[in-house]
Amino acid sequence: MSDTTGTYQPPSRPASTLKQRHIIMIALGGAIGAGLFVGSSAAIAAAGPAVLLAFVAVGLVVMLVMRMLGEMVTASPGKGSFVAYVRLAHGDGAAFTTGWLYWFFWLVALGSEAIAGAILLHDWINLPVWLLAMALIVALNLINLAAVHIFGECEFWLSLVKVISIVLFIMAGTLYVAHVFGPGVQIPRNVLGHGGLFPHGAAAVISIIPTVLFTMIGSEIATVAAGESAEPARNVAHVTRSLGTRIVLFYSLSIALILMIVPWSDIVPGHSPFVAAMQAMGIPGAGACMQVVVLTAVLSCMNSSLYITSRILAELARHGDAPAVLHHYGRQHTPVNAIMANSLAGAVVAFASILAPGTVFAFLLSCSGGVILLVYSLIVTSYMVLRRRMADTGQAACFRLPFFPAVNLLTLGGVMVIFVAMLLNASQRMTAMASLGTTLFFIVIHAVRNRMHPKA
Q1: In this predicted structure, what is the pLDDT of residue 341?
Q2: 277 near 262, Cβ under 8 Å?
Q3: What whole-number distance in Å separates Cα of residue 342 and Cα of residue 305?
Q4: Collapsing DSSP states into helix, strand and coil, what is residue 190?
Q5: Predicted TM-score of the model (pTM)
């Protein structure tokens, strides 16, 4: 229930909640997915060594968005997900649209990752891909239906595998380029000897920015998970202060080492650049090791997708923006109906990718691909509104982001640049337009709904 201060807690908060180590790993795991281990190959092949500039720039944008979100939660804890802060700043209409867009984005991710995981498992288990995909969804559904600390523990270990893998890769790569082991490598030739820093021009760097962004999305899940911890404000503050730096370091150091070890022209889109670098270093079993890591990343993404979609859906239901039945919490203090509904919807998306990959599934991917940009934009503008509002009432002590509002406007400009880059890129233009259509769809739904059933 909501009290007079607007603070909300799930019914009968359980004694066993998420711990700080869970929150940290959920945040890192959300941002480190298969996109880094495999998807980054397309960005490297498209932009060459200059891809590193794109990763650093996008990492800074994500870091600033997370910092803003963390300060809003710290200033006014216990409201719910970031959608609650959009509601505080911009009203019910913006919150309705933001919540459903974010839910849709992660729902499509759930279905597509289920198929990706099933394809990986198919190499080891000789069962139909659709059956393996359903088995993965059912397994993660059971994890999410259990007590929240069980979800947190599973996500902790899944994320830990990814983090340890990156740390070990960075350590091995650093020793290799320092000529501590191996035959040595000529860094200037690998980095600059195949067309220079910008082999395809500066425009290619701008064109890959959306691809780079989509490899980093997911860290905002931690702010939702922190709400189910014993000290939500403290945990959010701790995570958001350090998370952005860790993400930028992990991504930038990994990509920089890959570029030093392997000529960028040898990177094949769709094939892990990490495997190419490990093979160049002479590390045995590189392909098998990376297959395990990628499968872990896929399972982590599915686990987080089901978690965040269920919490967003339950929050929307609490405010009357979704069927009230979806706000039902079970004996384990988890939103049972929302989890079940999202599992079924994720299964539908997964089947669409099998039965109609070039039509229905391609349409769903296009419609969801760019909506996260609107979500990030609304987080930035919500921060600006709430910081000014609380400053007027003398309650702005928790807002410490320097150079306000210039840095906010620069961040907002960075998000807009990414969207413009999508519009200018022929391969991503349809995604940008379809995402605008999806946004308009939810805006119209809210307007029609309010006209038919106006809130008191």
Answers
A1: 94
A2: yes
A3: 9
A4: helix
A5: 0.88
Q: How far from 417 is each of 52, 191, 411, 420, 425, CA to CA, in Å?
A: 17, 27, 10, 5, 12
- 401's torsion region: left (phi>0), alpha (psi -120 to 50) or beta? beta
Report how far apart, in Å, the C-alpha atoms of 46 and of each of 57, 192, 217, 420 are.
Answer: 17, 15, 20, 18
| Distances from the Cα of 67 to the Cα of 148, 236, 398, angstroms | 25, 10, 11
Mean pLDDT of 373-398: 86
Asked if pLDDT for residue 139 goes beyond 90, the answer is yes
Give pLDDT, residue 414.
Answer: 86
Q: Which residue has the higher pLDDT, 400 or 396?
A: 400
Are 306 and 150 in contact, with CB atoms under 8 Å apart?
Answer: no
Query: How far apart (Å, rounded) are the C-alpha atoms in residues 123 and 120?
Result: 6
Region at 78 (left for phi over 0; alpha for psi -120 to 50; beta for the rest): left
What is the Cα–Cα distance from 353 to 325, expressed in whole angstroms?
29
Average the pLDDT over 84-90 and give the result: 92
- Report d(CA 95, CA 77) in Å as an integer: 17
Of 269, 274, 267, 305, whose CA–CA distance to 291 is shortest? 274
DSSP 192-261: HTTT-S-TT-HHHHHHHHHHHHHHHTTTTHHHHHHTTBSSHHHHHHHHHHHHHHHHHHHHHHHHHHHHHH
The residue among 247, 277, 53 whose CA lies nearest residue 173 is: 277
> How confident is the model over 162-166, as a mean pLDDT?
90
Which pLDDT value is given to residue 426?
A: 81
